[in-house]
Design a protein that fits this description.
This protein is an alpha/beta fold. The protein folds into two domains: about 140 residues, D-Maltodextrin-Binding Protein, domain 2, CATH 3.40.190; about 90 residues, D-Maltodextrin-Binding Protein, domain 2, CATH 3.40.190.10. About 45% of the residues lie in helices and about 20% in strands. The chain contains ten helices and 15 strands. The strands form five sheets. The protein has a five-stranded mixed β-sheet with strand order 11-10-12-9-13, with helices on both faces. A three-stranded parallel β-sheet has the order 5-1-6. Strand 3 and strand 4 form a beta hairpin. Helix 3 packs across helix 9 and helix 3 packs antiparallel against helix 10. The radius of gyration is 23 Å and the shape is globular. The chain starts with a helix and ends with a helix. The protein binds glutamic acid (GLU). Glutamic acid binds next to helix 6 and strand 12.
Length: about 270
């Protein structure tokens, strides 16, 4: 009888060990796993995109659809990788949340007006450049600010947390006050309500704001280079290669130009 008891205790311990090992195995699989294979098994790519950035990623509240240059490029990448442009899911990111969401595994890749920078390369890997922007200033028409040289200690510059724009402006105009917001919608609302003298980010994003309200315009040209890349978790070479191949294909077959002309050229 005692022997039987001991045997069943041993059996329970063995069973628990198996369950524990299986659990450890699956979580480490997720961490070290091949994201491209996960995408293919799932038959869908999950992209982190902006929901508040006109021309690149903007959610239309009426239809619930997200639209823009980044969105259309993402669909074409889905077409190349999982053979169907509808096999794509969009998750909202902001400049501040995009890298944490990627590294947590909530999204497979970021396509969200994101500049390739040496600093960011420590945390994520990037595709080839798919869009060239540059940082600029947006002001209300008639503003005395005509370029970066007009920013003084009395100027309040609005910017978005987690963007390269905040670091760049502190370097380019060290005396100016910088007020940071969670996203571009909030920053533009603040500019309209007079909380700042100018809003700074990429010319591409500012053009979208100016097209929404023509009492605002860009001034002074660009003062940085902001090459956009698609970010993936570090070490996912197969996924980076697949994305780069997709970019090459859509540049060769004219799809890229079609999308560029639809969103950018006319602006
Ligand atoms: N391209 C810049 C960046 O990656 C500004 C746009 C943005 O905040 O997404 O930070």
């Amino acid at each position: 009888m005692r022997k039987l008891k001991r045997l069943s205790v041993l059996a329970v311990i063995a069973l628990l060990s198996i369950i524990l090992l299986a659990a450890c195995g699956s979580s480490s699989d997720k961490e070290s796993g091949n994201v491209l294979e996960t995408i293919k098994d799932r038959d869908k790519i999950i992209f982190g995109v902006k929901y508040d950035t006109r021309l690149f990623g903007l959610k239309d509240p009426a239809s619930g659809e997200v639209e823009g240059f980044d969105i259309d490029i993402a669909k074409q990448i889905a077409k190349e990788i999982v053979s169907d442009e509808t096999k794509v899911e969009f998750v909202e990111v902001t400049s501040k949340t995009r890298i944490p969401l990627l590294n947590k595994g909530d999204i497979d890749a970021i396509i969200a007006t994101m500049t390739i920078s040496e600093e960011r390369k420590k945390e994520v890997d990037f595709s080839d450049v798919y869009f060239e922007a540059g940082q600029s200033l947006l002001v209300k028409n008639g503003s005395p600010i005509e370029s970066i040289d007009d920013l003084t200690k009395d100027t309040t510059v609005l910017a978005v947390k987690g963007s390269t724009s905040t670091d760049n402006i502190r370097e380019a105009a060290p005396d100016a006050q910088v007020l940071e917001f969670e996203n571009y919608q909030e920053a533009f609302t603040a500019l309209k309500s007079g909380q700042g003298d100018t809003l700074t980010t990429d010319n591409s994003i500012l053009l979208g704001m100016a097209s929404e309200d023509d009492s605002f315009g860009l001034v002074g040209g660009t003062f940085t280079d902001e090459p956009y890349g698609i970010a993936v978790k570090k070490g996912q070479k197969e996924l980076v290669d697949a994305i780069n191949d997709a970019l090459t294909t859509i540049k060769d077959n004219g799809k890229y130009d079609e999308i560029y002309n639809e969103w950018i050229k006319t602006e």
